[in-house]
Write a structure and sequence with these properties.
about 45 residues, mainly alpha, about 85% helix, about 0% strand
Length: about 45
């Protein structure tokens, strides 16, 4: 098993029973993080 936080976070969401909302929130956080990372890299390149 890898130490990737993504599956673990989804598993926690499933265990809490708030599957829909919690999973969407986690995915939204990951997307925001990726967008911010991409922007940061773009600014560093300029």
């Amino acid at each position: 098993m890898t130490d990737d936080p993504e599956p673990r976070a989804v598993t926690v969401a499933l265990q809490k029973g708030g599957v829909g909302k919690t999973t969407v929130a986690i995915n939204a956080d990951l997307i925001v993080e990726k967008v911010l990372d991409a922007r940061r890299r773009k600014f560093e390149d300029d």
